[in-house]
Protein 1
Amino acid sequence: MSQRHTLQVFEQYQKARLTFVQSVADLATRPQNIETLQNAGVMALLRPLLLDVVPSVQQTAALALGRLANYSDHLAESVVRGDILPQLVYSLAEQNRFYKKAAAFVLRAVAKHSPQLAQSVIDCGALDALVVCLEEFDPSVKEAATWALGYIARHNAELSQHVVDAGSVPLLVLCLQEPEIALKRVAASALSDIAKHSPELAQTVVDAGAIAHLAQMILNPDAQLKRQIFSALSQIAKHSVDLAEMVVEAEIFPAAFACLNDSDEYVKKNCATLIREIVKHTPEV
C-alpha cells in the first residue's frame, strides 16, 4: 500500500502541473485575465515548467507564455527579463514538433512588438534555430518558424538583413513550393517583409528565385494567399526599374489584370498596388 500511495502523490503532482498550465493557457486567451495573471506572478511559475519531465506540460507552458507575450510589449519584456528565451531556443533543437511549434510561437509573440524585442530574440541565438526548423518534415513547424522570421524581418532593414544572413531566404522560397496553403501564405508574407526594406534585400529575394514561384500562384483560388503574393511582388517591384522589369518578365500579365475584379477587396487593393509600383518607374514599363 505504501508504494502505491507514494506513486499516487507523484501522479497527483503531475496532474496538478498539467491542469495549471492548461488553465493558464486558457485564461491567457481573454484580455480581462491578463493583469490578474501577471500580478499573480505567472511568468516565474511557468518558466520552470518549460523544462518539465512531462512533454505535454512543457508544450502547454510554452503556449501559455506565447499567449501572454503576444498580448503586450510589457509582457513580452517580462519574458526577456525572465531569461526564458535561451531556454526556448535550446528546446527548438531538442524537443518534438509540438514543442517546436509552441516555442516558435513564443519567439514570434515577443519579436512582433518592437525592433528592440526582435533584437532580443536574435541575441539569444533564435535565428539559426528557426532556420533549422524550416527544414523540418512537419509543415506546421515550418509555418511556425516562418511566422517568427517574418515578424523579426518586418521591423527594419538591419533586422531583415540578420534574417537573410541566417540563410532563411532559399528555404522560404522552398516553403512557397510546399502543398500546404497556410505555409505558402506565411512564406510569401515573410519574403514580402524582407524585400520591402531596400533594393539589396529585394534582390536577395529575387536571387533565390522567388519571383517565378510567386507569379505561378497569382490565379490560386485562395484569397489570403493571393493577397500575400501581390504584396510580395509589390515590395520587390517598388525599388527600381530593374526589379520591376523582372516582375513583369515573370509573365504576371494579363493574369494580374483579372485580379482587379477579384471578389476579395484586399486582393484587388494589393493587385492595384503592384501595378502602381511597376508603372511608376518609367513610361516603357
Protein 2
Amino acid sequence: MFRGFLEPAYLWRHIVIWLCIVFAILPVLWIISASFDPSNTIIGQKLIPSNPSLENYRRLFNDPTHPFKRWMLNTLKVSLVTSALVVAITSLAAYSFSRFRFRGRKTGLFSILLIQMFPQMLAMVAIYLLLLWIGERFARFGLNTHGGLILVYLGGAMGVNVWLMKGYFDTIPTSLEEAATIDGATRFQCFYKVILPLSRPILVVIFFLQFIGTYSEYVLAKVLLSSNNVLTLAVGLQTFIGDQYAKRWGVFSAAAIIGSAPILILFALLQNQLVSGLTRGAVKE
C-alpha cells in the first residue's frame, strides 16, 4: 500500500489535490478568523486571533446605520421570488420548444442563446432608462424597487436555463403524454401532471443556480437600488468597507459568514436532486 502511495504518478496527483483544497479553504478560514478578531482590521491579522470575541457580531446586529437584518430579508425575498418565477417561465418555454414544432422554433432557440452571450452590464444604460420609464407609470417596478430589480433579473435568466431544461424534457418519452391524452388529459394537464413531476431534479437545479446568482449579484443591484433600506446583501456588505477612513473588516467578515448560511442550508436540502438534475439531460438519448 505504501509502495503505491510513493509512486510518482500517485504522489503528484495527491499533491495537486491537497494544494487545491488548501487554496479553497484558507480564505474561508481567514474570513472566520477575522470575524472573531475584535481589532476590526486585516493588517497583522493571525489565523487564530489572540483574543477572540463576538464583538463584531454584536456590532453587526446593533448598528442602525447598517440594517443587516433588513438586507438579508431583502435579498432572500428578491432571490426566492426571482428563482420561482424563472422556474415557472422557463419550464413553459422549454416545454414549448421541446414538444411543439412551429415556424421559427430553431431560430428562437438560437436567438435566446445568442442574446444570453452578451452580459446585462452592456445594456446597463438602457436598463436604467427602461426602469425609469416604467417607474413613471408603475411605481412598484421602477428604480430603487425590488420589483424592478426582479424584472431585470428575469430578463437575463431565460437563455441558458431554457436550453438546460429543454435538454431534460427531451429525455422524457412522449409516450407518457400520449397515454395521458388517451385518458382524457389536456395538453396543459400533461404538462403539470406528467412532465413537471418527472422533471423535479432539473427544476431544483435551475432554482438553485438562479438563487445563487441572484443572491450574490452586485453590479445591477448597486446601480438600480439607492435607498439604504432596500439594498440587497451584496450591496450592503460593500458599505462596511467603502469608507476610506472607516473600514470595518471584522464586521464585514461576520456579515459574510452569516450571509453564506442560506446557500449552505439550501444546498444541504437539495443536494440529492442536484446531482441527477445536472447529469441527466446533458446527453440526449
Protein 3
Amino acid sequence: MSGLVVYGLKEWCEVNKEEFLPPVCAKLMHKDDLSIMFVGGPNVRTDFHVEEGSEFFYMVKGDMLLPTIQRGKKVEVSIKEGEVFLLPSRIPHSPQRVADTLGLVIERRRTTDESDCLRWYTDQNCTQIMWEKYFYCDDLGRDLVPVVKEYYSLKDSLVPGQYVCDNPPLKQDVDTEVPAPFNLHKWIDEHRGELYDGKTLNLFPGHPDKEFEILIAGHGKSDNHSDIETWLYQLHGNISLTIDGQTTQLKAGECLIIPANKHYSVHREPQSIGMIVKQNPKGNKKN
C-alpha cells in the first residue's frame, strides 16, 4: 500500500513483548513527526521530565502512576487499565510503571529550537529543586541517559538550588490544572448512539492542551488532507482507506500512520469506530 505499514496492535505487542521488560521497557512502533511507543515495566523514575510537547497516554494492560507538578503542587495521576490521559506541554511529570503492565504513549518530534529538562527535587512533595539540566532531545532512549548519569555522579555533593537555571529556555506551566483520566471504553459506550449515527466526536473537548486533536469516528465516508502525520487506530469494525490510488482494509485492532501532506479517503462501515490522532507542534505556542 504505497509504503504504508499496517500493524495489528495485539500481534505487534506479542512479537515485541521482550522489549517491554527491563532494562529496555519500551519499543517504538513509529518515529517521525509522531512517536508511537509502547512502554512496559517495572520502571521507577526519580526525575521529573519537562518538555515543550504534549503526551497522550492509553493504558492497554494494568495501571500506572504519573506524578505531576500542577499549579505549583505535586499531583499524582493514576491512569488505570483502559483509561486515556492527555498531558499538556511544559508540566513536570515522572512516569512510574510496575511489572506486567503495558501502555501506549504518543508524543511528537522536538523542533530544533526546543529544549527538554530533567529535574530532581529535594523532597517527596517537590517543594524545592535539587538539580536540573536543559538539553536537546532527539531520542529519549539515548539522550536522557547521560543527563541521568551526570546527576548521579554529582548527587552526593549537591547543594539544593545550586544548579537551577536562572533563565531557562523552557518555561514551566504553572497555571494549568489537567483534567483527570477516564475510561475510553466507557466513553465509547456512552457515545455509541452518536457514533453509530455517523458522527465524529472530539475525545477531549474543552481540554487545555491544544496540540493534540484526538477524534473518535463512526461510520461514513470522508475525503481528508493533513499537513501533519495522522495515526489511525481502528477500535471496532472495518474501514477502507484509499491513498495514492491504492485501497486497503483496516480491521479492528489494526493501526497505521498517514504521512504528512497526503490526500486520502476513508469509508467506514456501519457500526465501525476508529480513533484519529494528530499533534500540531504549534498548538500550545504563545505568539
Protein 4
Amino acid sequence: MLIAVLGGSGGVDEVRAQDRESIRFDVAPGVPVEATVRDEGGVEVRIGSAGAIQQVAGVADADGKARLDHEDVDFDGHLDLVVRASVGQVNEAVAVYRYDAASGRLQTLRVPSGTQANCDGLWSLTVDVSSRTLVSTCRGGPMWYTDLYRYAGDALYLYRVERMMMLETPALEAVLDVDVAEDAGPLAVWSTLAADGRVLEHAVAGGLAVPAHGVPLKGVTARVVASRQPLYAAPGDTSTRRYLVAGDRVELLDERDGWLQVRYRNPSKGPVLGWVPVALP
C-alpha cells in the first residue's frame, strides 16, 4: 500500500520527523507507540505500556531508507503512524497505520480497488481537515494527476477524480474559445462520486487546478466561435434542430469520444444541455 501524507504534529514527540528513523507518540489515551525503521527494511512498532511488538512493512526509497511521522489521517482525534519515502524525483510513497483498539494492533489504511483513480494508492497526500478530504497527487510521465478521497464510516471511497482530455488544440479552438488560465494545466473532466461509486456530476476544468472541496463542480466557460453551431442531444447524433450562434457563452461539463457536453443558459428557457463535436474519432 503506497500512501503519501504531508503535515501534522502533536503527541508525545512534537519534533517534525523529516529525517528521523524512530518516533514515539500516543495512538490513543494511555496507549504509547514507539516505532523504529529496521536496517533490513520495514518498521518495528512497540505498542502500549507492555511493549507488544508488531512488524509493519512500511515503504522505502531506492537506498532502503524511510522516515517516520504521525498525523490524524482519519479524523478520529488520534494520531496515526506514517512511514514515508521518496520515489523517483517528485513522488513520495507513504504507508499509514491506524490503531485498532479491539485488537491492540496497527491496521493499514487502504484505498478501494477497482475505481477510476489515477494513482495506484495514495501519493503525496494532503489532509484537508475542514472538508475531511484526502487529496492524493502523483506524477506519471509529464502529467500530474489528482484523486480525492473521503470516508464512508471507517472506509475510504473515491470522492472526486479527474480524467485528462486528449482533444487536439486546433480542433477545439475552431469550435470554442475557452476561458482557462495558463497555469491551470491541460483541460480535464472532473467527476464527483457517491460512496457507492455513482457519478453525481461532471465539469471540465484545468487539470492542475483542484476544485474546491465540498462544493458543486464548476466548469470553465467558453465562447462559441462558429456562426451557427449545431447542439446535439447525444454524442454521435447526426441531426438536430438546436443551434448555438457565435458569441454564445457556454459552460463545459464533459467530454466523450471527441464530443463536448456544454450548458447554455438561455435567457428565457433556462439551462440547455447538449453536445458539440470537436474531433470525431
